């Protein structure tokens, strides 16, 4: 494998315990271990993280932007999934 | 700032050509007008993609090449404090280059192909990095003026229409503010030091002032692309607007240092509240774009040397990864 085969990794950093890993960018590396080392150097210079995930970009299944309507529109008219749909008299507490 | 030279005749495919406006174009422009962000794999006009690839690539190359004039002084920083600050700044610039190459890859190019273009002399980077750093005071002037100008340009880019570029800019801007303070603090120390130190600071300001103003590029009426880039919300303010803001912000800072900006026509305009400044001589800028600046050749040679001499590191990393994979296979096999 020469450098042209270094796969692309998407990098996710957990800023601190209690928070989720957040996508911060990408980098090329020869393998996962190198990706972690490089991610530390590039994306955590100011103590931004306690945990790094490096995911080969090829492993990510992503939805197609052109499918947005068919994937997400059906949820829009199901307003009964929201608490505001239900009328509870103001006198009732703790609900 | 990162579209310098994109209008030149040598840039192929960058000339705006008349073409049919399709339904997709109209819908795209509606999204832009509604301040929606465009994300990777969203439909976009070819021109939008091309312009972004060029601009982001130039921006990334600028960061990497920008490490060279400052790297020149790391071993000669006058104190440990100055040395660690300069090391951290140069390290940041490397990181900024990587954020930007990452953003460009979301548009369908590879970092390797962009780097190849740079090393082949086919890609551009900001004109300012073709000047030499002659004294320690140059490091102060660069942090104060060059990073100052870059910040002026980069803050609006945090709101550009392309998501990955905007997000990269947010990260860059957060890191860039220490760069400018590092430079200004250095200038403060020199300006308040010995007579010789103050002279050195003034000399650096004399050499870096006009090139910093030129970073913003010529007036937008000279550029065929500015109007389109504004419409696409890649560019949010005109070159002249940004340059004026930079001057207005920087003149009081120079006054505080007790240094003189090398422009006899510089004066506060009581009516407008802005500083009027002298005419820029663009011949120097044009020569640099053609490759005839003081350090164009040196910068490219340094990058090529670094690439060639770093080959063993890339090969070693690849070999090491292969060995690790084999060892792992042996364990689980």
TrEMBL record, chain A:
<dbReference type="Pfam" id="PF06243">
    <property type="entry name" value="PaaB"/>
</dbReference>
<dbReference type="InterPro" id="IPR038693">
    <property type="entry name" value="PaaB_sf"/>
</dbReference>
<dbReference type="InterPro" id="IPR009359">
    <property type="entry name" value="PaaB"/>
</dbReference>
<protein>
    <submittedName>
        <fullName>1,2-phenylacetyl-CoA epoxidase subunit B</fullName>
    </submittedName>
</protein>
């Amino acid at each position: 494998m020469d450098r042209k085969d270094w796969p692309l990794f998407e990098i996710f950093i957990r800023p601190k315990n209690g928070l989720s890993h957040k996508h911060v960018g990408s980098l090329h590396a020869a393998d996962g271990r190198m990706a972690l080392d490089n991610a530390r150097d590039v994306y955590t210079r100011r103590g931004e993280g306690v945990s790094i995930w490096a995911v080969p970009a090829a492993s990510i299944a992503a939805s197609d932007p052109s499918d947005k309507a068919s994937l997400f529109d059906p949820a829009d008219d199901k307003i009964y999934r929201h608490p505001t749909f239900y009328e509870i008299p103001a006198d009732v507490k703790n609900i | 700032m990162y579209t310098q030279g994109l209008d030149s005749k040598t840039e192929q495919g960058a000339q705006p050509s008349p073409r049919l406006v399709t339904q997709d174009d109209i819908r795209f422009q509606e999204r832009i007008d509604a301040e929606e962000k465009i994300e990777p794999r969203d439909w976009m006009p070819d021109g939008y993609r091309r312009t972004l690839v060029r601009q982001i690539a130039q921006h990334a190359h600028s960061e990497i090449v920008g490490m060279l004039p400052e790297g020149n002084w790391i071993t000669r920083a006058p104190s440990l404090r100055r040395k660690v600050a300069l090391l951290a700044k140069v390290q940041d610039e490397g990181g900024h280059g990587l954020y930007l190459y990452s953003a460009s890859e979301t548009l369908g190019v590879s970092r390797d192909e962009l780097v190849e273009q740079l090393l082949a002399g086919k890609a551009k980077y900001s004109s300012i990095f073709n000047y030499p750093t002659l004294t320690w005071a140059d490091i102060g002037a660069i942090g104060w003026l060059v990073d100052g100008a870059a910040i002026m340009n980069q803050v609006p880019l945090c709101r550009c229409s392309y998501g990955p570029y905007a997000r990269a800019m947010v990260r860059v801007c957060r890191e860039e503010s220490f760069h400018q303070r590092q430079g200004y603090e250095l200038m403060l120390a020199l300006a308040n030091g010995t007579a010789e130190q103050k002279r050195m600071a003034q000399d650096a300001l004399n050499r870096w002032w006009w090139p910093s103003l030129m970073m913003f590029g010529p007036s937008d009426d000279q550029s065929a692309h500015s109007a389109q880039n504004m419409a696409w919300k890649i560019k949010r303010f005109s070159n002249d607007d940004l340059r004026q803001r930079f001057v207005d912000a920087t003149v009081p800072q120079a006054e505080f240092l007790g240094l003189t900006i090398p422009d006899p026509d510089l004066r506060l305009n009581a009516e407008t509240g802005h500083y009027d400044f002298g005419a820029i001589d663009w011949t120097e800028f044009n020569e640099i774009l053609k490759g005839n600046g003081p350090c164009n050749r040196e910068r490219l040679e340094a990058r090529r040397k670094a690439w060639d001499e770093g080959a063993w590191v890339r090969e070693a990393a690849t070999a090491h990864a292969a060995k690790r994979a084999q060892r792992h296979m042996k364990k689980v096999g």
